[in-house]
Batch of 2 targets.
Target 1
Amino acid sequence: MAGYKMKLISLTKKPGQTFGFYLRVEHGEEGHLIRCLEMGGPAELAGMKDGDRILRVNGKFVDGLPHSEVVDMVRNSGASVTFQILDEVSYKQAKAQGAKLSGPQSTPVANGVANHGPKPKLCYLVKSSPTYGFSLRSVKGQEGLFMTDVIPGEVAHRSGVNTKDRLLEINGENVDDSTHDEVVEKIRQAGSSLMFLLADEETDKHYKNKHMKIGAWLATTKYLPHKPRIINMIKGSDGYGFMLREEAKQAGHIIKDIDRGSPAEKAGMKEMDRLVAVDGKVVDSYSHEQVVDRIRLSGNTCCFLVVDKDTDQMYTQGKVSPMLFYDDMKDSNSPPSYTEAISFPVPVRPSTPVKEKEEDLKPKLCKMKKTSADFGFHLNCIQGVCGQYISEVVSGGTADRAGLENGDILVEVNGVNVEQRSHGEVVEMIHSSGSSLELLVAKKSVYDKLKAKGVAITCMLLKETSYVQVHSAETPETSMEKKHEKEARPETPTEPARERTSSSSSEDSVDERL
């Protein structure tokens, strides 16, 4: 990389905020491009420019990685992320000259940290007495706040906190710029539990020497009391023996109805576990059908990362992904015995791998009005293929309340069929619709079946206007309650309409807001 100067940029966002840019891949352009910088957003303020190329994310070289993998790395970083960036002109010159963009930092890294480097630590404190058993101090001429008076045997000490540890985050919020009094107040307001990100003296010095920001994406999870579970399974002829559902009152993909004696039961899956990842791929943003398809594509063996309720709550409080645990286990030489279970013969019984409930072959008519910047969903397409699909529906947003779901295929916009329209045309139709929008959509499975039957998908297929077709597991009573609730307020406003495009597969997003 001689002659080319890379920029090292660290970004931190507040809860509910984005990093303020789109990450794109574009036809005829190489690399992961920075586009659509938000004026006054973290990215613009840190010095990012339109057309810059991202070379590294948290120390890992990404120039040759698939777009979706880079997006996942940024999202899994939590509230802070570090980039190494090259400007557009330098990037194109380097490519033309065949320069080695990976440069001298070719040491393999895992989750942004060289395998031999120290890691900060996540510590979860649950108060069982009036205090946690530590104090905070500042050191004249030294940046940050540090732990002191850590009482042996008390909550903080048992949770992995040591004297002289530097406090970096409280419940996922960076406190580098906070005063002593502000941090004390945050701790008091947090209640009876806290998630700290801490760095001991060696770790703090290591990253200062590298001029790298320390964030939760670098942390070890070994001090955390609740552990996600890595479950490897061999499928029997009756499948894995569990049902995957979406619950009305719980986010994510939930494990239910585990068959007695099934691979799932023997492997240690539990009722109401949340499925985080399949074969190392985070599935939080996937639709139900996409997760089921991914499991089926795994063949006869599959690796599941799951969390129970307490573990899920703990990671959520710290605003970190359970994938940190998964990466910790990949980095360790010997996998933990408490997460393993799992190769065994299964009796042959006729059935299917993952149970799904029957669905009506009907589209959905979703009506929405906005009062904020947009409608609360992204519009994606598959490059070179006609058709648009919905992604990243904001939970509780206008689109969500109107019944729009991730993976829905878009058929009509305000009564106009858009199946053969270009992505740009459809985006413009949505933008020009003003504050009201009516979309006719269909779940992909429904869309494919209707097309296979040669049925034209129009509002005529709706016996009555239905704003929601929930594919989660629920009783007939709760299903009807939800339907009536949605129909009673189909036009409740909420969040933003953002457009995105996708590359050669529906999982590889070409245009990502970060």
Note: Confidence is low (pLDDT under 50) at residues 104-115, 333-358, 464-509.
Target 2
Amino acid sequence: MFIVKRIPIQPIKFINFKTKAIIPKYMAGKQQTIGRFFGGSAAPVVKSSPTKHKISPPSSPALKKQKLGDDEKENAKAKPLTTNLEEIIVKPVENKNEEAQTNPAPPSSSSKIPYSSLTDVMEKIENEPGRLKMIEIISQYFLEILNNHKDIMKLIKIVYLFINRLGPDYEPDLELGLGETLLVKAISECYGRSPSKVKEELKKLGDLGLVAQKSRSRQSTMFKPVSLDIDTVFDNLTKIAKSTGKDSQSRKIGIINKMLNSCDAKSFEAKFLIRSLEGKLRIGLADKTVLTGLAQALLLHENEKNGNGNKRVNPTEIEKAVDIFKEAFTVLPNYQILIEKAYEHGILNLLDHCHITPGIPLKPMLAKPTKSMGEVLDRFQDEKFTCEYKYDGERAQVHLLPDGTVRIYSRNSENMSERYPDLITVIKEFSKTQEHTSMILDCEAVAWDRINEKILPFQVLSTRKRKDVEEKDIKVHICLFAFDLLYYNDQSLITKPLNERREIMIKHLKPLEGKFQFATAKDSTSLEVLQQFLDQSIRDSCEGLMVKMLEGTESYYEPSKRSRNWLKLKKDYLDGVGDSLDLVVIGAYNGKGKRTGAYGGFLLASYNQDTGDLETTCKIGTGFSDEDLANLYQKLHPTEVSNPKSNIVYDKNNANAKPDVWFDPSMLFEILTADLSLSPIYKAAHQQYGKGISLRFPRFIRVRDDKGVEDATSSTEVAEFYERQQHVSGG
């Protein structure tokens, strides 16, 4: 029996009967979240001294297992325990692992992988500006996981956590991106801070992840919480993403609090956990970098398994492995399948085991812009080519699965089936009368006026709801214009010439007036005929023409590539750079005069696909109506942050390069420009030229709701526009 003398200055007020923890009254008076002690989870305590302590209750297993000599046992029976409470339950512990925490060791071969091992790597990547060094860091980490863990699912989960997803883009109900209000509430509840204090610190730091990390580092815990591991974090994030219905918010906060309580105060776990929940890691890690690092790790691991680990790997073989892995990803963008196939069959044999599959969207082929009909004829000189209407709609990849299921995917692989139930009905309608076992169509979904039988502008299409769409309630009708057939009845067609793919499509598919039609096309090499066809496309409410190689290997479908075998010719843009640009809104300038109370202009950026950076490109203030500015203020004001995100590249030494407010990047503007020039202020493609490229006289066209930040015009494309302009002008 333990006897504890009461201490006048620190009387015992509470005992947690679950953990047998003795909690001093003075602690309870200063702790807002004392109730969590009775749930058994870790909770904050007030530090009594700068010395780090470990709490060991008298009835803890550690004391129960303590080995005593005979004399000590007799003394324990005869004497009461010391009256000093701290001598009973508080023991200083030397931090022997401090060096290990600073320089984390490779993951052990145990079944659990510490979440801190991942967040330490993320922190290194965030502070690493060089892409090659980033690849080296993640490749080494992936290799350590492969070498130390036989369960390949652990690597798959790690890869998804690196790219801040829980599965493939096309899988529904796997989006996180929780709102700021919910996360502020979770942080304040977990760490015993008022929401107002959390918001105040967020305004200063501009990063809720940093707020969480600082909050965790200030908090001591009475008992060491169970450490977070990769499986636990991934599974909990999945639960949060799939949590819907009544009380879902409280369930989400409960799961978040449990994880935040388990975060190590000395690691970056809280920081990156909150960023993952926000849907924005901000470490500048692009998909291409992850694919490259993963391919290298798989090849090196394979060599080690085959007993060649000590041999130097030929750089050519590494380059080949990376190219194969990237190509496989374009036709089968599913990390789990690719990793499992590469692990089983070898990465160099991956293309033999990865094929186009209905239900898994390909990365679409894209066209390069052109400025004039003369450029088109120069490119396709002595070649057979075709021209098709370029429709002003939304790219739609239609999949018919062997079981009769129809799915529709966007250009960025998002599942749009819920948004377009009427298109699903159309596909099923013409499938009833024809023998289709499976199919993948590349199409454009266009708003259609059924009364006047004509195409409506994209702005009309964008008014359709994105979720919970009932076919009976649809007011904006759609016509699907098919221009390519990529897969038909269990056979891939992408390595067949375009003329053959088109023949198969026309032979086996039957148009339905006003619902499903083939893209209007014309084959001709006559400049006069092409000019007339371009003019006709504009009269028919289209943007211009798509000009495509018709025969031979150059007419094969090239997933994910912006190919010179497809050129787009837009009537409105022939006098500019040949195309519009889709740029990310990263900041704004306060309006003056009649624009007071709204934003008067915006700072835009291109997307660097190699680094994941957003590089400033131009300031824009023209092309906006008063209604546009009012709507943009309502949408963008909630995304204001006090400091620019770490992946935004701008001239920090030039006051003119800084906007009045910064945004958490989420919106794209479609922009027209007269031309491009080198600039000492802007940063697009600055690594290539020493100076950045800027847009001259940019004009706002519309908001691109159908695109995400990574779909923005790349810095490489901006450089191509500039180079082509210089070439045409003879500069």
Note: Confidence is low (pLDDT under 50) at residues 4-109, 727-731.
